[in-house]
Fold this sequence. Notes:
- It is globular, with a radius of gyration of 14 Å.
- The chain has a domain at 13-64: CATH 3.90.470.20.
- The chain is mainly β and 84 residues long.
- The relative contact order is 0.19.
- Helix content is 12%, strand content 33%.
- The protein has 1 helix and 4 strands, in the order ββαββ.
- The strands form 2 sheets. It has a two-stranded antiparallel ribbon. Strands 3-4 form a two-stranded antiparallel ribbon.
Amino acid sequence: MKALAPDDDALPWRSIEVTRAAGGRPLLLLHGEAEALASRRGLDHWTVSLTHEDFLAAAVVVAGRRCGPPLPPVSGIAPEGENP
C-alpha cells in the first residue's frame, strides 16, 4: 500500500491480488482503483516475497517501473536524500 501512496482514501483490499505465476513464484495483480493509481504513479513492475509459519504470514512487495522519464514527487513522500 505504501508504494501506491493512496491520496486520502484507502484502496479496497480486493483491488490487490496475489496469485501464482508459472513455476510457482508469487505474482501481484492489481485491479480497478489500485491498477489506475499504479498507472498514475508510473509503477509497472512488482516483486513479491511471501513467508509463513504456523499462525503468522507476511508479504513484502517492491514496486518499480521498467523505464521512462523521472516522475514528479508524490505528496507526503520526501525526495531521495531529504527528510520530510
